[in-house]
Write a structure and sequence with these properties.
The complex is a heterodimer of chains A (113) and B (117). Chain A is mainly β and 113 residues long. In chain A, 0% of the residues lie in helices and 51% in strands. Chain B is built from no helices and eleven strands. The chains are: A mainly beta (113), B mainly beta (117). Chains A and B meet through β5 and β6 of A and β5 and β10 of B.
Amino acid sequence: AQTVTQSQPEMSVQEAETVTLSCTYDTSESDYYLFWYKQPPSRQMILVIRQEAYKQQNATENRFSVNFQKAAKSFSLKISDSQLGDAAMYFCAYRAGSYQLTFGKGTKLSVIP
Amino acid sequence: DVKVTQSSRYLVKRTGEKVFLECVQDMDHENMFWYRQDPGLGLRLIYFSYDVKMKEKGDIPEGYSVSREKKERFSLILESASTNQTSMYLCASGPVFGRDSSYNEQFFGPGTRLTVL
């Protein structure tokens, strides 16, 4: 069974600084997709960034980028120039050919003004 | 914009009551999902549906059932609510799995925080 591990239950970052959230996963599949979702307090979960396993280039969306290490089964999220609005729960998720996403347990990110 | 809506943001029920949580999506997605979210446990899949009237058990289906009579609507049913079902319930929808990555994410509703007394 696929598993997704987020080893940092909580993290904090100073406003305008950079922070990296870690995620590792276990799979025997060669073709799969990885996601980072953001859930702000009392608000809807939204997709931050996605990465296709068959692509070597790391995905980037504005201040958000990933470091995808396929051999190491690692998928970390880097947030640059952190803003107060980045404070949220962040979930790493995995999907292969099945219907469902497998989620990690989440990392709560606090942004210090 | 994809929109997934859930019938209630907050719900308080008594032990033993039958509870219905409704979810509606407006993007013609084939797949719909019900998750339960608890602190420290992340999101756990209860049930999902890949077509009208079709359903599959997820990781924690005990105590729950689902109904999908129309493509856009997916209901979660707690036949006899218990206190250990107090939780946040998230509905999600998504299209069929495909090579194009834009078709592989799930879109979430705002969640229903259910309290069973």
